[in-house]
Amino acid sequence: MLDLHGGGSVYKDQIAKVVDITNSLNPDVILIVGDAVDAPRALIESRMDPLKCLHARIGTFFTTGNHEYYYGSALEWFDHFKNSYGITILDNK
């Protein structure tokens, strides 16, 4: 998954559809490789909630793109994705 751009013009129902399609593929691993968000966390946090429904045998992993830094602290998104959605954060590890 890349460039979800949640916020602005991408809404919760659209993200849920991407999650449903992804899960229907029965993936071993899901990689969210940046630009998942396009607005500050306080404005769109609930829009991203469908991500908690992602299911992969090995796990779901996230790394940032530039947009996570455009809209406040990327660390806020790291914490939210990890603690609320169970997504493993890859941050220079």
TrEMBL record:
Signal peptide: none
GO MF, any single term: hydrolase activity
InterPro entries recorded: Calcineurin-like_PHP (IPR004843), Metallo-depent_PP-like (IPR029052), Metallophosphoesterase_sf (IPR051158)
Residue span, Calcineurin-like phosphoesterase domain: 3-83
Gene3D superfamilies given in the database record: 3.60.21.10
Pfam families: Metallophos (PF00149)
Full protein name: Calcineurin-like phosphoesterase domain-containing protein
Source species of the chain: Acrobeloides nanus
